[in-house]
Structure formats: structure tokens, C-alpha cells
Design goal:
2 copies of one chain form a homodimer. In chain A, 44% of the residues lie in helices and 15% in strands. The first copy, chain A, is of the alpha/beta class. The first copy, chain A, has helices at residues 5-12, 16-23, 31-44, 50-57, 73-76, 78-93, 109-118, 135-142, 166-179, 195-210, 227-236, 249-262, 291-308; strands spanning 62-67, 97-102, 124-127, 147-150, 161-164, 185-189, 220-222, 243-246, 268-272, 285-288, 313-316, 319-321. Chain A folds into 3 domains: 5-48, lambda repressor-like DNA-binding domains (434 Repressor (Amino-terminal Domain)), CATH 1.10.260.40; 60-164 and 291-316, Response regulator (Rossmann fold), CATH 3.40.50.2300; 166-289 and 320-332, Rossmann fold. At the A-B interface, helix 4, helix 5, helix 6 and strand 2 of A face helix 4, helix 5, helix 6 and strand 2 of B. The first copy, chain A, binds a DNA duplex through helix 2 and helix 4.
Chain lengths: 336, 336
DNA sequence: TTGTAGGCGTTATCAC
DNA sequence: GTGATAACGCCTACAA
């Protein structure tokens, strides 16, 4: 026996239209009818068919998030799971679901967006890992699709985005080191073509500018955001340096490991403030990104975007958290 | 102007039924008609509406995977991304998509399965992180839902599953250590209530049995699969031991770190063979799980389950990979 | 081989 | 307030 809206209508002695109204909280239903219908719904344990609703409303309630294949790090990244958790929480509060998918290894990244759009599988996208010149964004714009980017375009392009203040964060961290008289700050940056890297590099430069210092480009290294990358870049750097600023906490941890092996003791600052940052030895000075807030805000913006045609553009503040690793002789801390 | 099957039909001068037949590769369409229709489809760039198809066919093509909230480690777990990648690849080959979702923090884990089932959002589930007594499985069985479990029931219960030979793997690793005359093997196991932990404990016990040795239960510790957990359990263990067998490579790495600090040099074996295992110092002896194959096989089984009512039950072989960490005096390796 | 038409389950528009 | 009824876009008997 199939259970659908008309079964309920029949049992309740009303029309399907009325049941639908009850279901959708329409005000134009008498209290009495509403209660009668509700009772039947509960007794039958009826739940509306989501697919039929989608067909009718042309909305699936699914938000697509395609995880770039090029960056396995997002999964290594303790950070990412927090982002997802918060976004999921916010979305499900309004009846949306995250449709997470991994990019296909050897396919043009745009294809999966095309498929999802063509088949009308999702209502909107969350774009991760914004590139300097991002073909996914280009594509979605030509298709007039809804999306929110995590990250901020570097060329002032008008796209809906949420980002943390990467430039400001780098500025704060580097200024702190410069104030401490560090003058040769090794900057372990992320991949060169990612907008996040570009913003942080701008902060690095700006801080030097403020102090009237010139920047030697050879101190800016591009790697991936992993611990391993931080370790290797530090270890293989040829030349003197008196501080390290890393674009992720994992990289900073790698740098600390390398420094220890090199028996070199200079201030280190990371980026993110992942949970481990407070637990390493030495504890990590770092730029805290409000990752929960990012997850929440992205979800919130997507919903706003879908339900009221808003065009979100937000930069969230970051904060420099001072711990042991940025202090000279931080190795001493281990003796406690 | 809306683009749907009847627009195409009109343009091509045929009925919607014929277009549908072409779309679905029905043999009963003349070559000529098919070509004519195809041409129109291409010119119009028509793509069938997935939601309408779902409504008609009662299949969404979505496979639900709910990531347990209790175990943030799945995201720390470098392993998990490989699993997802392979599963996704296999699924999309047959037109399915993975619908990944994070479990809601403070909600009964079963609820999200209920929601997905009620609303008919997914065709089947992949269950991760099987518990000894798993209410999700119970629930899905009562609802007669399709699912495949990654992991093997410990009580012989009949459920569709894919698992690696956890017991055999532990058996091999522990036997190897016993053969080396180790007699006090510290076993850093995963959470006690997870089936994977129970299988591995069985392997540990079995190996001892084979050597006619009794097992001291105090040598079996339960933690989480993280590096930190391995480190702490090793460091805080009170009592002598002459080898370590860890239930994950991350834990093994934590154990190695602890041993180094304790200036203790005993063989260590891990589990998984994550990419880093070959790159640590010392390199890690470990039980290799064919993770790509697990991802592929789970996806394959889900499809088989959906399309031909099969009931998959498969245990995939594992292999002991001998590297440096299991050899006594492995610290020497660092001098090269 | 092809076309007609009903139905999948819901919601929105229009009457009453 | 409530009830018919027509879509939404597709597939599949059944008929031709």
C-alpha cells in the first residue's frame, strides 16, 4: 500500500491541497482541519516525498561541494572537517544538505559542475580552493548558477564570497616579527596560484612596507600546506634567515621539526590555529582563523543567496595568537 | 523557453516516447530516427532532468555516506580520502553519486538515516565505522533499506559487508614479532566498541595461541587511531614491553616518537600502510590494507546490490610490509 | 518501429 | 477555508 499525500487526504477526509497546506504551514487552514490532518499524518507516519517536491519546486535542497582532486590536503587538513561540520549544521537547519563529491582525477574540473547543473542536481555550489584565475567560477558565471566562494578574488572581480582576512593576518604576523627586529623572515607560502597565497603574500609585503623595508623575493617560498612541505622547504633553504612565517600550522610544525634538526632557534609563526597548535612543543604562535564561523557563514550566505537573492561578500577577522614558538629561545620552553 | 523532452520531440518531429527511447538506448528505435533525434539533442544541448527521472524511476542515483561525528579522525585519516576517491570514481562510472554528510553533533545517529530514507533521498547507504552492536545497521534492516558496511560484524550477523582481513593482518604482524622472540607485545588498539578493533584483537590473541603463549590483557590498550593517542598510550604504559603493535600507522608513528623520547628501542609495527609510512624515519613496517580496492569494491558492491539484488560479503587480503621499524636497533637506520 | 496517454507525488492556481 | 485540477519532466504499458 503506497503512502502519499492523497492517502493522507483520503484518511483525513480532506483534499490533497489541504494536506499540502498543512505540510507547508500555510495560514489559510482552520485550526480544526490542521489538527485533524496532523493526526492522520502522525498515525500513518507520513513523510513527504522529497523528489516529488523537488520536481515541483525546481529545488533539490542540495548544495554541491566538489573537493578538488589536486589537493588531497583538504582531507589531511584537520581544519576542513570543522568547516564541513559547521556548514552542515547550518544548512540542515534550513532543510538543506551538503552534496560532497570528489573531483574526478583525470577530467576537466569544470565537467562535474556542468553535469550537476545540467541535471539540476544541486541548487547551488560552494567553491573551495579559489585559484587566481578560476575556470570553475568563469563557468558558473556564464551559466548563471548560484554559488559562494570560500576565498577572495585577487583581481577585484565581483563574485559572492566569504573569506578570512588573509592579508591582514599575514600583516599582523609579519609585523610582530619585524617588531622583534627580525629582518630575514622566511615565508613558507602555499601554492602560488591560489588566491589565499596571494593575499597572504600581500600581507607579508605590506608589513615590510610599513617598516620601510625592502623584500627579497627569494624569501618567499611556495609549497603545499602540509607538514612535510614545511619541513622540506625549511631544510633546503639556502641562505640565512632569522624567523619563519608559515601559511599553515602544519607547515609551521614541519618548520619547527626542521629547525630542531638544524639546531637553529628562530621565531616561528603559523596560520590557522588548528587544535594541535596549542598542544605542540613549543606551542604554536599562529594566526587564528574563525573556521567555525567560516563554515557557518558560508552556509548562511548560500541560503540567503537562494532565498533572497543576496550577494554575499564578507571578510572575517583573524587574530594573532601569541604562544611559545614566536619567542626567541623557544626551545627553553621544553624544559618545564 | 523551457527545454525538456517534449521540446526535443517536437523539434525532431517524433513523440516524447521515442526521444525517451533514444535517451535510454532502447533497441527498438530505427537507426534513422535515432540519428535524427540525437542531432536535435546535441543542437539543443538537451540533458534529461535528473529529478524527474528520479520521481519516475524511484531512484535518485545517490549513495548516502554519513560520516560519524564521534570520529573526527576519519578526516585526519589520510586514508579516508583515498577510499572516497576510489569509491566516487567507481560510482560515477555507473551514473551514481556519493552523498557525503556529516553526522549531526547532538542527535541520535539513526535520525539522519531515517530522514534520508523517509524522504527517499538516497538509494543506498555505505556504513562506516561499524560498531560491535550497531544501531544504524539494526535500523536499516528493520526498514529493509539497501546498504553495504565497511567492516565485518563480530557476531556472525548476516549483513552485506566489505572488509579487509583485520584478524589475519594482526595475526601476521604479531606472529612476525613473536618469531623474533618478542614476548611482551604492547598492542595499541583502536576504540573497544568498534568491530575493527575486535577483529584485530582476535588476530593478536590467535598469534599468541599459535605459539602456545598466554596473553596478558594489560598489554592490550584501547585508544583512538590518532598519532597523539599512540604517543600517549606508549608513554604512559607502566610495565615492561619488548615490541609494539599499533592498530594504525598514525598510532605507530606516535609510539615511535614516544619510544625515542624514552630512549627505548623495540620493534614497532603499524597498520594501514598510509603513504607516509614509507617516508618516516625509521620507515614503518606495517600491515598494508588495499584501500583503493576497498573503495572500489564497496562501490561495486553497492551497484551490484542495487541492480541485481546481490548480497556482497567480501574479505580483502592484507599484506605485511617489512621495513625498518620492526627491526631491533632501528634507530641505527637514521645514521645513514 | 512509433505514438498515445497515464502516472510518479507534490504544489499552485483557480474557483467556490 | 477548502477542493478540483493542472502542471513539473520523464518513462512505459498499451495500442497502432
Amino acid at each position: 500500500m503506497k503512502l502519499n499525500i492523497s492517502t493522507v487526504a483520503k484518511k483525513a477526509g480532506v483534499s490533497t491541497a489541504t494536506v499540502s497546506r498543512v505540510l507547508n504551514g500555510s495560514p489559510s487552514v482552520s485550526k480544526k482541519t490542521r489538527e485533524k490532518v496532523m493526526k492522520v499524518i502522525e498515525k500513518l507516519e507520513y513523510v513527504p516525498n522529497h523528489v516529488a517536491r523537488s520536481l515541483r519546486s525546481k529545488k533539490t535542497g542540495l548544495i554541491g561541494t566538489i573537493i578538488p582532486h589536486s589537493t588531497d590536503y583538504v582531507f589531511n587538513f584537520p581544519y576542513f572537517s570543522i568547516f564541513l561540520r559547521e556548514a552542515t549544521k547550518r544548512l540542515s537547519g534550513d532543510g538543506y544538505q551538503l552534496l560532497l563529491t570528489i573531483e574526478e582525477p583525470d577530467e576537466n574540473p569544470v565537467e562535474i559542475y556542468r553535469t550537476f547543473l545540467d541535471r539540476k542536481i544541486v541548487d547551488a555550489f560552494i567553491i573551495l580552493d579559489l585559484k587566481e584565475k578560476d575556470e570553475r567560477v568563469e563557468f558558473l558565471k556564464t551559466r548563471d548558477a548560484k554559488f559562494v566562494v570560500v576565498g577572495r578574488a585577487v583581481n577585484g572581480e565581483e563574485i559572492p564570497f566569504i573569506d578570512t582576512d588573509n592579508m591582514g593576518g599575514a600583516f599582523k604576523a609579519v609585523s610582530y616579527l619585524l617588531k622583534k627586529k627580525c629582518r630575514k623572515i622566511l615565508f613558507l607560502n602555499g601554492p602560488a596560484n591560489q588566491s589565499v597565497s596571494i593575499w597572504r603574500a600581500r600581507g607579508y609585503l605590506d608589513a615590510h612596507l610599513k617598516y620601510g623595508l625592502e623584500v627579497d623575493d627569494s624569501f618567499i617560498l611556495n609549497g603545499s600546506f602540509t607538514e612535510d612541505s614545511g619541513y622540506k622547504m625549511t631544510k633546503s633553504f639556502e641562505g640565512e634567515f632569522d624567523a619563519v612565517f608559515a601559511a599553515s600550522d602544519l607547515m609551521a610544525m614541519g618548520a619547527l621539526k626542521a629547525l630542531k634538526e638544524m639546531e637553529k632557534d628562530v621565531p616561528v609563526i603559523g596560520f590557522d590555529d588548528i587544535p594541535q597548535a596549542a598542544m605542540t612543543s613549543p606551542t604554536l604562535t599562529t594566526v587564528r582563523q574563525p573556521i567555525e564561523k567560516v563554515g557557518y557563514t558560508v552556509a548562511d550566505s548560500i541560503i540567503a543567496c537562494l532565498e533572497s537573492e543576496e550577494f554575499p561578500r564578507k571578510v572575517l577577522d583573524v587574530e594573532l595568537i601569541i604562544r611559545e614558538s614566536s619567542e626567541v629561545n623557544h626551545e627553553d620552553s621544553k624544559k618545564w
